[in-house]
Here is the input.
Amino acid sequence: MKDQNCAYCMEGDLVAKFGIKIAELPSSKVYLFKEQSHRGRVIVASRHHVSEMIDLPDADRRAFMDDVARVASVLHKLFKPKKVNYGAYGDTGCHLHFHLVPKYENDAFEWGGVFAMNPDRVYLAEAEYAALVSDIAAALAS
Here is the structure.
């Protein structure tokens, strides 16, 4: 069931405010987070409009977590972060999604701490977004 007010259900302009669609996986949709203080930051959103992981049947929950792990593997391969942080928020937007945030030890901005939801520091040119989307999509497809 789609929620007409949910960015992940409706996509289009609602998602475009913060993300760019990269790919659709078996249980999720993957978006590049426009604010790129952490190069490679993405969102993995469930295909199901549920608020909590416990709202998914066991098989769907496992499939979603498999997608999250697949995307994390791609981020490690492409961007070589020291660590990927995972954030599952949604206090106001109740659609299950994870922020996957590559963290780099040489980044004094947030290394060793919790990542900011939107630090509003780094935005890219359209060509840079297109290259990141292309690289991540190709790695997910292989």
Q: What stands out?
A: The longest helix spans residues 58-79. The first strand starts at residue 19 and ends at 24. The chain has one domain: 7-141. The domain at 7-141 is CATH 3.30.428.10 (HIT family, subunit A).
